[in-house]
């Protein structure tokens, strides 16, 4: 009888479950996602269109950007050849300034961020507030303040001067970014290294830096992009062609070649390539580094 009762119980349970499943409301398919998708496509097309028109105009032998056709039916690379010949040195200058700014910024900001994250010192909150306020100062104000100083010490029209000036702008942001990530590192990892006989510097190099790779790559990328796209500081601190970056080269290029937009647009495309390549390569590091300090 016990076996029969058990079978009846199983049968009743299955019937109740089936009945409840039949009564359960099915998820409704909403059509609200389609308008948002269309709206997102429209916004994306609006944002991408200037980039497309820049590439499109650079491949056409036209006298003006407004007279270019919608598609380069007869593409030509004459504009790129002219851009390489006339703006090649400026491209190299921007690369030197960008990489130099990254090295100097990381050399200063990485240990500073670790010190602010690990050690509790008086005035830390005030110092962080000052760093945050510096992000609100316009770049032209910093450039004008540095002009007199660099003129007195002979750093105008030099790679060193531009690297120092760009690093002064990028260091506060890099410190704030990496400090937020380093605060999420468990203190027990560093303490274990100290117990094993390592000093603070050894623990910083062997433990903190490998763990903070994503944040460091993110800070390096934003630093490079900031130095690569700088215009105001370069315009203020340079007056010769020897150390002229690509942004200032495009500015002067438009003034002397405004009747021929092909080389101008080709130069703009070449100036955009390093940023685009770096963003694609370091995309996963950016997402991990930017959000790493948000969860503890």
From TrEMBL:
Keywords per UniProt: Cell membrane, Membrane, Transmembrane, Transmembrane helix, Transport
Topological type in the membrane: Multi-pass membrane protein
TM region positions: 33-55, 91-114, 126-147, 159-182, 203-228, 261-282
Top-level taxon: Bacteria
InterPro entries: BP-dep_ABC_trans_perm (IPR050901), MetI-like (IPR000515), MetI-like_sf (IPR035906)
Keyword Cytoplasm: no
A single Gene Ontology CC term: plasma membrane
Chain ranges of the ABC transmembrane type-1 domain: 91-282
Subcellular location: Cell membrane
Gene Ontology biological process terms, A to Z: transmembrane transport
Family: Belongs to the binding-protein-dependent transport system permease family.
PANTHER family per record: INNER MEMBRANE ABC TRANSPORTER PERMEASE PROTEIN YCJP, MALTOSE TRANSPORT SYSTEM PERMEASE-RELATED
Protein name as annotated: ABC transporter permease
